[in-house]
Amino acid sequence: MPELKLLHADHGPAVLAFELANRAYFAAAVSDRGDAFFDRFRERLSATLAQQDAGINAFYVLIAEDGSILGRFNLYDVEDGTAELGYRVAQHIAGRGVATATVRELCRLAVARHGLRTLRAAAAHDNDASRKVLAKAGFVPVGPAGPDDLGGKTGTWYRLDLVPQP
Known about the structure:
It is a single chain. The protein is 34% helix and 34% strand. The chain has 166 residues and is α+β, with helices and mostly antiparallel strands. The radius of gyration is 15 Å and the shape is globular.
């Protein structure tokens, strides 16, 4: 059974392998991270972990029983009870409900561990899979997302209220 865990430095090699193995698959739906991401991965991982330690972001990895990474599920810009959700799953498990189940689990963690009340997420118009995951997880469309939000693409912002607002 896969397990969702907070990103740790020890996950670095498995995360890099995940990103490399799925690079072309991801680039078909979202902007490619570029060669610099891979060339400077250790530095980027250190910066990512520093942001997590500062409480700015929370980065999670979905780990298979064999230790490989099946997906990344992240909370960005954690502030004032809100955050932005981002996620990606390996091509070989896409379409099996794993992303939806893990987004739902992360929503529970967002409340319990991070004290969040609201999550936002953007999905490109041509990213049907991501839009379906968000809808199944309870997110509702709230407005347009522009190229600056989606790496050059247009789409929709979604919102999920995790707990009733006061």
